[in-house]
Each structure stands twice: as C-alpha cells, then as structure tokens.
Amino acid sequence: MTTDTPARLLQLLSLLQTPREWPGGELSERLGVSRRTVRRDIDRLRELGYPVQATKGADGGYRLVAGKAMPPLVLDDEEAVAIAVGLRAGAGHAVEGVDEASVRALAKLEQVLPSRLRHRVSTLQAATTPLTSGDGASIAPETLTVIAASVTGRERLRFAYRSGDDTPSRRLAEPYRLVSTGRRWYLVAYDLDRDDWRTFRVDRIAEPFATSVRFTPRELPTGNAAEYLRQSMYGRQETYDFEVAFAAPAAFVAARLPKWFGAPEPIDERNCLLRSSAGDSVEWLAVRLAMVDCEFAVRRPAELVECVRELGGRLTRAAGGSRVGSEGGAGDGPEGGSRDASGDGPEGGSRDASEGGAGDGRREGRGVRAG
Prior knowledge:
The chain is of the alpha+beta class.
C-alpha cells in the first residue's frame, strides 16, 4: 500500500498515461488503496490540469484524454531511455524534420534523467551504429544539448571552433538559435570577441561550456535565424544557378530532393522543371540529381552539364564491367572507348522536357541526359 499521497499520485498518473481504460477496482488493487481514495486522487489530478475522463458502469473506468494543454508527462525507466536514445539518434545527424525543438526536448530530458538511466542511454548509444541517409556530418548529441540549453537559458557559451581552413580558435558567444538545414546544424550567435553576429557549423564546435553568465538577447538584423543563416551562407560562398527537367511529377521530385532547392514547377502531369541555386560543388549536385530515381535533363550551367556527362560515362563503363587497373585501362582504344552517356549525336539528342518531357517517365534503364 502506498501511503505517501504525492508518490501515489505519480504512480496513478503513470498508469493513466497508458492508452487504455482502467477500471476503478483494478486501480484500487494496483495502488493498494480503497476505491474512494482512488476517486479522491482522480479529483486531485483534475485540479492539477490532467483531463481524466470517467465512464459509468458497474465497475466505472478512468482514462486520460487529450486536453487544451499538455500537462507534465510521467515516464517509467524504459520509456525514458527509449525516448532519449531516439532523440539522440535523430539529433546526432541533421535529419530533415528533426529541428531545434527536438534538441531542446532532449536537453530537458537528459537534465532530469537519473544517473543510472543516463548511463544506460550512453551505453546503448555507444553500442549502436545508425544507418542514416543524411548528407551532413554527424554531431555528438551532448554538443547539441549543451548549446540548446544555453540558448533556452540565455547563458553565454564558450567553445573551441575549427574554421573551414582548419584554423583553431576559442569563442565566447551569446547563442541565439540552432538552425538545421537538413544536412547540417548551425549555431547563430553574437560573437563577443568580434563584436558581431556569426554563424557556426556545429560539427566544427568542440568543448561547449555554458558559463552560467546570463545575457539579454540582442536584436538579430534579419529578425529570423533561418533567414540570417541563409543570407550568411550565400553571402560568403560562390553560388550558381541551375536548371533541370525531370521526367516525373513535381511532387515525386520534391519528395526526393533537399527542401532548400525549392519546389519544382509542373510542366504537365508527368514532367516538371526545377530552377534553383546551389553553393555545393557541381560533382555533389550531379550525384544528388541522379539519386532522384527518374530520368532528367540538365539545361544549365555548362559545368553541371559536363559533370553529369562525365558521371554518366563513368557509370556506363562501370556497368559494362570495365577492368580498371588492367592492361589497356578501363576500355582504352577505339574498341574500348565508352560512348557518351548523354546519348549525344544525330539519333541520341535529348528532348527538352517542354517538348514531351525529359524522357518517358520512370522505367528500366533510367537515363541521364546532360544538356
């Protein structure tokens, strides 16, 4: 029998948060108290904001239903570990859809986890190798949670930073927001040493330390961290415009490309056109376009057209079983030279998507037309 009322209420709440209806008699047995005490405890939970619904009958039941606000959630050990591991796995890789709110939730959860559960989470994480589809670098979840806690608590943050050319430095900053691009995490912060706003790639941050020194957030020039990051990224790196036609519906293509490319424009029900810009290498973009899993035709720029043509030829030779490193190379000579994968020539020129599409839709032998 649980005589301590707060402990009994927590136990009752834990039972009610299981998605089922609990007969009053079963709750009475579980808690070791009378049904009258169960009814009083139910009333106390309602006063605390928990929407407990009662049903009539010979053995009336109780269940927790959705309310206007989310009351505190009670988790058992296994549930807490499962949620922490799941959040860590998602936060360690900038998986699209796992944004700053998820990292804040992980920071809150790990802050209150007992040491025994924190050890279980760390042990399970260390023994697990995730298979992820993200293109960005992996990040230690501890790094994200320390930064997220500093953002929420408005605490100045010290950390080591490695720039793009591997120059090391120590930074003292007022963290403003964490921003996920789907490939990478970035920290938007006010750099106190440089007296200006800066963006930092989180995978280049090491040894983050919350100083416990509070600050009043400054006004961000753009008013929005994501917009500031976008302007910062495109302002300091060379970008180029590209145009690609796809032999697939716009929704199909949009679901298989990064969101920051923007939405493809439908040409008709079976074809679409993507006009966007990128700061990544044309080699990366060529591979990323090929992963859409449909035929496509690159219209511009010329550098991307040539890169796709070379990639197509290389893949064609690989599919043909070329003997790399053997005498004669990978198909040297008049008999072994590969034909251009783009199919250029009198009979092989690609059709523009506006004249019937970038191909005949998704089919066997998906083609890559460069230009």
